[in-house]
Design a protein that fits this description.
The chain is 7% helix and 40% strand. With 321 residues, it is mostly beta strands.
Amino acid sequence: MVTVQQLNTRFGINGQLGFREDAPVKGTPPDTRPASGLGAASGLTIAEINNPQATASLCLQGAHLMAWQPRSQPAPVVWLSRDAKLTAGKSIRGGVPVCWPWFGAHASEPGFSAHGFARTAPWRVIESGTEPNGATRLTLRLMENEKTRTQWPHDSRLELTVIVGETLRMELTTENTGESDFIISEALHTYFKISDIGAVQVTGLAGCDYWDKVGISTLKKQDGIIRFAGETDRVYINSATECVIEDDGLKRRIRVAKSGSLTTVVWTPWTAKAEKMGDLGQPDGWREMLCVESANAIDNAVKIAAGTKHTLIVECRAESL
């Protein structure tokens, strides 16, 4: 077990990157504390990034980016629920969960966790550094254990590189280290901070086919701009284009560009589902978030040949309207 002190000695960057054990922040009001500040410390390890361009935090469990805010923005760009909790072996509500090696329910094992095990498994830091433009780079690798090998009996290596600056770049790389091909589905399940779900729209997906997952799964085609007036759960297929969240309330747009991804998921739970979920920041925290996820799912699952790699890259940028 690597200690926080060892992580800081080996991977810390003075004034930019440090590691700490999760603990409540003394004297911080409950609605502004970090996720774990809502209860007892979880003992999980958090990487904190604070450079001239942006701030961010990442939990080593799940390689889960929890927050990102460029200094040019008065509000966070990545959203974390005020009711989120850090718990060993449990997913965190908000941020950027890593969905891998399957997206959604497992095809044949209903007892396996939805969206795979990567988002709740331990990861280890393997590299850190500073980019030429001053952004901070952190690379983590999934740690295999008996549970993961039972659910995924393939020789593989999964790494996530996060580059935090005025732009957020995430690179999820799957390497097939075995002698047989395998198929994955995956997503960087990004929750974006918005002013209100009724004040935003998403462009970039006009004309794309999508599976509407609300009710009976149905294949449809997107007609123009996406606006929101109820529960939305759409899996856009064969789409590699940039998406843009236009937010009149915060007077900004968030650009989501990607490569190595042919699926985009757009999701908001709306009132009834949010109440059932219970950790979206009751009573109306769900109105301040929107998921636009870069993925490879359903029709776009990826076959990775023995001895090769596949990388899903997402780049996010916020700018004023």
